[in-house]
Design goal:
Strands 1, 2, 3, 4, 5, 6, 7, 8, 9 and 10 form a 10-stranded mixed β-sheet that branches. The N and C termini lie far apart (about 45 Å). The chain is globular, with a radius of gyration of 18 Å. The protein has about 270 residues and is an alpha/beta fold. The longest helix is centred in the last third of the chain and has 16 residues. α2 links the parallel β2 and β3.
C-alpha cells in the first residue's frame, strides 16, 4: 500500500489559540506517520506536543527548529520544508496548525495516492471561516487573505513555496479536487488572540510593527474586535455542510463569543 505522511509546524500556538491538537488528530487518523516540528515554543506548546507524541506512536515530534530562521514570511516555507523533510512516506499532506481536514475526505485522499494518474500534487478546497463558525469568506471576495484552493497533497520531496500556502507544482502535474475539504479556523479563534496574532504576524511578515494593519492596531487600543472592518459582510457566505468531527469541543469553548458577529442577520 502507498504510504502517506502528514506534516505540521508550530510556534507558540497555545498563546495564539490555534486548534493544533485537532490538526494533529486528523492527521493521525488519515496518515501512516505524522511529523510535528516545533520552532522554539515557550508558551506550553512544546510540553503539550511531547505528551501527544508520547501517547501516539504515529507522531514524531522534532524539537529545536529556529523560528527566526529566514527573513519575513519566508520562514514559513523554510519551517514547512524542514517538517516535511523528516517524513519517510511516499506522499505527504502539508497542514497548518489552525487547519483541520474533514474526515469525509480521507477515502478520497487515499484514492488519489493509490491511483494518481499523471498527477504529482493535488489542490484542495479550503473553507476560510470568518465571522463565526457557520460562515466563510466567499470564493468571489475581493478581500481574501487566504487561498481557497491551496496545493497540499503531493509526492514527498515536493517542497512548499512562498509563505507555505501551497506546494510547488507545474501544470499539468497537479489537479484541483473540491472533494478534498479542509477548514481554516485561524480567523475565528478567540478575538483577543486573533488581534495579538495578527499584530505579531504582520510585524515580522512585513518587517516591523509600523507596517501592521492600522485597523488591527485600533482594535487592540479599544479592546474591541470587529471582523467586518476587515472583510465586508456582503463577502461572507453561509457554510453548507458539517465541520470536521474533531472540532466540536474546540468550537463549543468559543461559541458564545462567535455568535455576536453574524447573529444580527446575513
Amino acid at each position: 500500500m502507498t504510504s502517506l505522511g502528514g506534516s505540521i509546524f508550530t510556534h507558540n500556538v497555545q498563546q495564539f489559540d490555534y486548534c493544533y491538537q485537532e490538526s494533529i488528530a486528523c492527521l493521525v487518523d488519515l496518515c501512516d506517520e505524522v511529523v510535528v516540528l516545533d520552532a522554539g515554543s515557550t508558551d506550553g506548546t512544546l510540553e503539550d506536543l511531547r505528551r501527544i507524541a508520547s501517547e501516539n506512536p504515529k507522531v514524531r515530534l522534532v524539537e529545536g527548529a529556529v523560528w527566526d530562521c529566514a527573513p519575513k514570511h519566508d520562514r514559513l516555507r523554510v519551517l514547512a520544508n524542514q517538517a516535511m523533510s523528516h517524513l519517510t512516506t511516499d506522499w505527504h499532506f502539508m497542514l497548518q496548525a489552525d487547519e483541520v481536514i474533514h474526515e469525509k475526505s480521507f477515502e478520497i485522499i487515499r484514492g488519489c495516492i493509490e491511483n494518481p494518474g499523471p498527477h504529482k500534487t493535488f489542490a484542495v478546497r479550503r473553507f476560510n471561516l470568518f465571522g463565526d463558525f457557520n460562515h466563510h469568506i466567499s470564493l468571489s471576495s475581493a478581500h481574501k487573505p487566504c487561498n481557497d484552493g491551496p496545493i497540499r497533497l503531493g509526492l514527498t520531496g515536493i517542497e512548499a513555496l512562498g509563505d507555505a500556502e501551497s506546494l510547488a507544482a507545474d501544470h499539468p502535474s497537479w489537479v484541483y479536487l473540491s472533494q478534498i475539504v479542509t477548514f481554516h479556523y485561524g480567523l475565528v479563534r478567540k478575538s483577543s488572540a486573533l488581534i495579538e496574532k495578527s499584530l505579531d504576524m504582520q510585524t515580522w511578515f512585513h518587517g516591523g510593527y509600523e507596517h501592521a494593519d492600522l485597523r488591527i492596531k485600533n482594535m487592540k487600543a479599544s479592546n474591541t474586535f470587529d471582523p467586518f472592518q476587515l472583510i465586508p459582510r456582503s463577502e461572507i457566505v453561509k457554510l453548507v455542510g458539517t465541520h470536521p468531527k474533531y472540532m466540536a469541543e474546540w468550537m463549543a469553548a468559543r461559541s458564545e463569543e462567535q455568535t455576536q458577529w453574524m447573529g444580527q442577520g446575513e
